[in-house]
Amino acid sequence: MRAQGHQVTEHPSPRYTHKGLATRARIIEAAARLMFERGVANTSIDQVRRAAEVGGSQISHYFHDKRDLTRHVVDVRRNNVRDFHTQAKFAALDSLDALQAWADACVSDIDPVYRVGGCVYGSLAGELIEADDEIHDDLAAGYDQWIELFRTGLQAMCDRGDLRPDADPRHLAVPLVAAHQGGALLTHATGDPQPLRAAVTAAVDYVRSFAVSPRKGGPRAPRGQRNS
After folding, report:
1. φ/ψ of residue 211, rounded to 5
2. Cα dist from 139 to 119, 126, 129, whole Å
3. 222: closest CA among 171, 179, 159?
4. Which domain of life is it from (predicted)?
5. Which of 52, 203, 205, 221 could form a disulfide with 30 if both were Cys (CB 3.0 to 4.6 A apart)?
């Protein structure tokens, strides 16, 4: 997918054997997990080495330094975001039901994910956005890709006539991502599930307000809200 305004930086690498690729992936996954749990600054190469159960020479074989490894972690987390949003249960994010299913899934992840470390991508962005221009562009491209996933689905809704003619797909897509990120940050900081729940619900309701034939009964709250 083409990013809107920022190019995803490619990381060309030598050809590795299947075993080498598996080892490299294991190192990146270990680094991603530790950086989510502890933060980038508090994650050392030695900690990654032990978590991945590899030797120091293997780390240096696959990655120039911690910065190089961190950029690969950003790649993995960007792909995690894409994979999450392209699950079959969300269709192509091209209907109100699909957007509601996305909001419900975010709410379901509050305890296992957002209260633990916030958003896996947003937490990296918050820590690394001022690191350097290349990492900044990596992160920005990830957000552009994320917004584009929603924009594409919303464009399909407009093309079908599901949304009013004045609905702007990108204008509606940006608040969905922004609501998720702001809500995730507040829920992580406070431990309160309400910010994320309220934010994603409001963002979907905003899209719903442009529906040509709004459903009777008004906006539907995500599952789990009644008991909180």
Report:
1. -65, 140
2. 13, 10, 7
3. 179
4. Bacteria
5. 52
C-alpha–C-alpha distance, residues 93 and 91, integer Å: 6
Q: What is the mean pLDDT of residues 105-118?
A: 96
* Alpha carbons 4 and 154: distance in angstroms, whole number: 16
Rounded to an integer, what distance in angstroms lies between the CA atom of residue 51 and that of residue 66?
Answer: 15
> pLDDT tens digits, residue range 161-206?
999 999 999 999 999 999 999 999 999 999 999 999 999 999 999 9
pLDDT-derived band at 16, boundaries 50, 70, 90: confident
Confidence of residue 17 (pLDDT cuts 50, 70, 90): confident
What does the CA dihedral 176, 182, 185, 189 come to, rounded to 10 degrees?
A: -140
Question: What's the token pair of residue 7?
Answer: 């190019």
Measured CA to CA, the distance from residue 109 to residue 146 in angstroms comes to 18
d(CA 127, CA 142): 15
